Task: structure prediction
Amino acid sequence: MQAHRIHLVVPENHRATIEFPATIPSGPVELIVLVPPAAERRERAETPPGRGSLAALAAELAQESKPFRELTLEERKARLQRLRGAGRGLTSGSEEFAKQKLEEIEIEERKFGR
Result:
């Protein structure tokens, strides 16, 4: 059995979607959740989030003087386009999600001999 480490933060609603790397073949896996000690969780919470392109863009946008609601339509479109560009590829699209669900259904059907 091979081990892969994927870090994530459990949100308030306790639901998360995991995107596995392409190096993990489709099929059954065992998911093990390791919860760090409370002291380590506090330390991680105090660490400023994000060091990537979205974090840089968020810091840049936070320094702009005009709130989003006060921008013209063209300015709003331009700001949203910048956000879309910075976040592109960070999440899977609906087609990829549907493909993964179909694969999961096939696995379950094989598992139960259907």
Summary: The chain has a mean pLDDT of 78. Helices lie at 38-46, 53-62, 73-87, 94-111.
